[in-house]
Task: inverse folding
């Protein structure tokens, strides 16, 4: 019998506007993560250093069947902004500029910073929309004078336009790299655009600074990604606004460190149907992020984001005997001597054949901002791509980068390997290529 294999390699490609001109990356929060991103991009531009950890810059993407042997770099396959065309800006209530932020955070060595110091100093922080009730451990000094929240939003929109003009940017994206705000649940004021705008004018207590930045970004046609776990774009009013204005949004909480490990290990255990009885995670962290998270109301925001991961990957309702009774604990302790070099310990109690118990111990000595910086770069470039591809609203295909991915009604996907496939297949489809299914046929 003759087997006929039909290979259909092309679908209809999206019309994507070219990445011509300059792309401005605006970051509320010029702290450790933002300054490490900016310095890293400047270093890559000046001495050709590899942007390690950046999927948009370093990863290849397979096209068609394996026999076709087409495997370009992602950045050569999709029209992304070039690193040489990026301009950086931001707001911060403490850091005066990116150089001071980099020195204070101590992530990069003086030797690495020295050749970039003039350029880093040129990234000057704009005055922040800041309210201490949301970040009790920070006493902001470079803060906007406006006290009415609607006027604060207008002031941010004016900043955005001024930045666009002064830096001759063709396009802008905003990525929240500021401190984690105190825990909050959505309230009435977040129900719709109308109620949110009324709340801004009435100085509603439930509107946090990050929500004001998001509103200002979307009203200015600027895509917004949220790198922290606070309630910012995962709100009905902001989702409605993103759709109305035709702008992409994504969140939340960069997936680095311990949660990255969790989303690498747990799908592996599940793929072999090994049971999990308990997962105890603890961290020590000595940077400003650690200090902010030392306040219980801010830690609660982080804890909620970190705890959601296991349930979604392990599906206890589908596999009650394997994952129905997991003790999952997450701790973070502020320990100043450690600086940005976080240390995480995981103790995982698993069980196998006949219920026999086993243990896995992970001790991850990571550098938080070194892991986060390439994520900010990828998010900025991909959010800009999505905008040029005519996308608006939640960008689920970027779940790969987040601890608590914002998703549609079906809920988030946490398994990093499924997230990676979704990201790459989305790019393939936009460019008129067939998704790769990894089936025997291809
Ligand atoms: N580094 C990681 O691996 C990682 C992972 C996930 C999430 N995050 C989140 O990313 C954020 C940044 O982390 P970091 O290590 O750079 O922290 P950081 O403390 O070094 O920097 C945060 C900066 O935000 C500023 N800030 C606070 N409120 C602000 C406001 N309203 N407007 C503008 N700026 C404001 C602070 O002054 C500070 O300079 C944190 O929320 C952190 O939880 C980091």
Result:
């Amino acid at each position: 019998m003759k087997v006929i294999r039909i290979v259909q390699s092309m679908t209809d490609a999206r019309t994507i506007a070219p990445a011509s001109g300059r792309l401005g990356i605006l970051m509320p929060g010029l702290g450790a993560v933002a300054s490490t991103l900016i310095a890293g991009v400047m270093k890559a531009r000046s001495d050709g250093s590899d942007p390690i950890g950046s999927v948009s810059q370093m990863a290849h993407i397979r096209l068609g069947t394996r026999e076709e042997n087409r495997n370009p770099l992602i950045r050569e396959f999709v029209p992304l902004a070039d690193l040489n065309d990026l301009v950086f800006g931001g707001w911060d209530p403490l850091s005066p500029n990116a150089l001071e932020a980099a020195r204070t955070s101590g992530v990069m060595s003086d030797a690495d910073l020295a050749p970039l110091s003039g350029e880093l100093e040129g990234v000057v922080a704009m005055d922040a929309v800041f309210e201490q009730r949301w970040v009790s451990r920070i006493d902001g000094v470079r803060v906007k004078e406006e006290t009415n929240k609607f006027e604060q939003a207008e002031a941010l929109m004016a900043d955005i336009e001024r930045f666009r003009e002064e830096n001759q940017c063709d396009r802008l994206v905003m990525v929240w790299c500021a401190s984690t705000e105190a825990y909050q649940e959505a309230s009435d004021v977040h129900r719709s655009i109308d109620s949110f705008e009324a709340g801004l004018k009435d100085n509603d207590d439930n509107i946090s600074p990050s929500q004001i930045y998001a509103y200002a970004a979307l009203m200015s046609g600027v895509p917004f990604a949220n790198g922290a776990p606070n309630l910012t774009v995962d709100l009905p009013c902001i989702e409605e606004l993103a759709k109305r204005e035709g702008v992409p949004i994504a969140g939340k909480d960069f997936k680095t460190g311990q949660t990255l490990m969790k989303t690498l290990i747990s799908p592996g255990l599940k793929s072999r149907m090994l049971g999990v009885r308990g997962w105890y995670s603890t961290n020590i962290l000595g940077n400003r992020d650690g200090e902010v998270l030392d306040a219980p109301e801010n830690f609660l925001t982080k804890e909620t984001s970190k705890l959601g991961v296991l349930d979604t990957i392990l599906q206890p309702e589908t596999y009650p005997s394997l994952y129905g009774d997991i003790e999952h604990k997450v701790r973070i302790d502020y320990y100043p001597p450690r600086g940005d070099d976080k240390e995480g310990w995981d103790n995982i109690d698993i069980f196998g054949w006949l219920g026999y118990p086993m243990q896995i111990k992970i001790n991850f000595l990571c550098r938080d901002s070194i892991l986060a910086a390439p994520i900010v770069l990828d998010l900025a470039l991909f959010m800009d791509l999505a905008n040029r591809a005519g996308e608006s609203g939640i960008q689920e295909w970027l779940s790969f980068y987040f601890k608590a991915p914002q998703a549609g009604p079906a809920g988030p996907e946490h398994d990093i390997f499924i997230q990676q496939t979704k990201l790459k297949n989305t790019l393939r489809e936009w460019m008129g290529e067939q998704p790769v299914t990894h089936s025997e046929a291809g």
User: Anything to note?
Assistant: The chain is about 40% helix and 15% strand. Confidence is low (pLDDT under 50) at residues 1-8.
